[in-house]
Amino acid sequence: MSLKQLTVFVENKQGALAAITETLAKSNVNIRALSIADTEEFGILRLIVNDNESAAAILKQEGYLIKTTDVVGVKIGDTPGKLSTALKVMDAAGINIEYLYAFMVRTEKHAYVVMRVADNASAQAALEQAGFHLICDADVKKL
User: Fold this and answer.
1) With contact defined as beta carbons under 8 Å apart, do 79 and 58 qualify?
2) CA 12 – CA 28 distance, rounded (Å)
3) Rounded to an integer, what distance in angstroms lies between the CA atom of residue 44 and that of residue 10?
4) What is the pTM of this model?
5) Average pLDDT over residues 17-24
6) Confidence band of 21 (pLDDT split at 50, 70, 90)
7) What whole-number distance in Å separates Cα of residue 94 and Cα of residue 111?
8) Does residue 3 contact residue 115 with C-beta atoms inside 8 Å?
9) Span 40-73, pLDDT tens digits
10) What is the DSSP letter of 94?
C-alpha cells in the first residue's frame, strides 16, 4: 500500500507554479499535498492529487516533465510528539527518510505525512507494526 506522487520539473520563474495549479484546477484535479524545492533555474514540485492519471496526462500534454514515484503515506495523531514517534520508528527500523512533507486535510484529530524512502515495504511494515495507519491513493480520493 503506497501513494503515487507526481514530480513535476518546473522552470524557476514568476508564474510557473500558478500555471501548473491553474491547469490542474481547470481539469478538476484537486491537490491534496505538495512540496516544492528550488534551484536557481528549476524547481521540483511534488504533488499528491486526487486523480494521478488525469493530472499526469494533462501536465504532459502541457509540456511538463513528469515522474511518478511510490511514496509512503502515514496518518499520525495531531498532537505534539506524534511525528517524532513515527520518525523514531523509521530510525529504529534502519530506514532513512529522503524527504517528507505534510498533507492539507480537513481534520482536527490527524495529520497526514508523505515520506520518501528507499524501501517502501520495510517502512510500511515498521509503521504498521508500531500501530500507525497507512494511507493509499484510495484514501486520498476520499479527502
Assistant:
1) no
2) 25
3) 6
4) 0.80
5) 94
6) very high
7) 24
8) no
9) 888 999 999 999 999 999 999 999 999 999 999 9
10) T
Say which residue the cell 499528491 belongs to. 48
List of residues 6+ apart from 135 with CB closer than 8 A: 3, 73, 74, 75, 112
The DSSP call for residue 132 is P
Q: Do the beta carbons of residue 20 and residue 45 sit within 8 Å?
A: yes
3-69: CATH architecture: 2-Layer Sandwich (3.30)
How many angstroms separate the CA atoms of 19 and 11, rounded? 11
Nearest to 16 by CA among 35, 49, 34, 42: 42
Q: CA–CA separation, 35 vs 1, rounded Å?
A: 21
Q: Which three cell numbers stand for residue 121?
A: 515495504
Residue pair 78/107 in contact by the 8 Å Cβ criterion: yes
What amino acid occupies position 93?
A: A
> Which grid cell is 45?
514540485
Give the Cα separation of 60 and 56 in Å (integer): 6
User: How far is the C-alpha of 31 from the C-alpha of 138, rounded, in Å?
Assistant: 14
What is the CATH superfamily name and number for domain 70-142? VC0802-like (3.30.2130.10)
* CATH 3.30.2130.10 in the chain, residue ranges: 3-69, 70-142
